[in-house]
Structures are given as structure tokens and as C-alpha cells.
Amino acid sequence: MSNTYQALAKVFTYAGMLPFIYGALAALDWAPGLGLWPDWISWPQAMILYAAVILSFLAGVQWGRSLQAGLTESASLGLLVSANAIAVSVWLLLMFNQSSWAVLGLMMGFMLALAVDYVALRQQDQQAWFFKLRWQATLAALISLGVALIIYY
Predict the structure, then answer these.
(1) Closest to 131 in 3D by CA, of 8, 2, 9, 18
(2) Which of 3, 53, 68, 113 has its CA 20 to 30 A from that of 92?
(3) Which pTM value belongs to this model?
């Protein structure tokens, strides 16, 4: 994998952390420009929806990895099952709308997705630089969702 690809993946991942961080700052009423947003925006709902989008994206990454050549059948099946379990769980959690259950469930989903990536790393099916990046992004998501959980619920 080229250095350009890794750099671009890092830029996109760090940029993807910004809505989580902004949402946590909004929960604390510390977000810059918070007064410029329309009154109809619900920050708890925005946090839940963004987390659901990102977690669904991570499930898609796992599903895509399950199709890679060179994986054992059990590794491929494990990725496929976990990807679908996460995606369906996210859909179910959205039905809880603005609730602590939705936030807690999404937090658990992020931890599960990271655990699946850790297993892939241990089985040498994932590169170390990518797992480090995923760990950082998951930590940012969990802290931000934790702040939202404490403040809003």
C-alpha cells in the first residue's frame, strides 16, 4: 500500500472524527459557531445519526474484507456475519431514536467493530497502521458518545 494511500486514509479518518468531536462540544455548549445552527437541529439526534452512519460504514468495510482472496473460510464467514449483525443492529438502534439505549448500543457496536478488527490484526489479515488508525477513531467516537450520554441522558 502506498504512502499516499495511507496518508489519504488518515486524512479522511481524522476528518470523520470531527463531527463526533463537534457533537461532544455541542453537548457541553462549547462548540464554536453553535448559535449559527438552526434551532430545529437536535444535537443528541445528530450524534446518534452520525454514529449510525459511521458504524454502518465500518460494517461495510468488514463485509468487503470478507470477500478478499486469501482469507480462511472461517475468517471470511466471521467477517460476513459480524458485518451483517452490526448493520442490522444499527437499524434497530435507530428505532430507539433519542435515547440512552441507542447511544449505549452504538457504543457497543463501535467496540465490537474494533474487536473484529483486532482479531483480523492478530490473524495478520489487517495492517498494523490501519488498526492503529481505527483504534484512534473508535476512541474519539466512544469519548464523544460518552459525553453526549452523560449530558443528554
Answers:
(1) 9
(2) 68
(3) 0.94
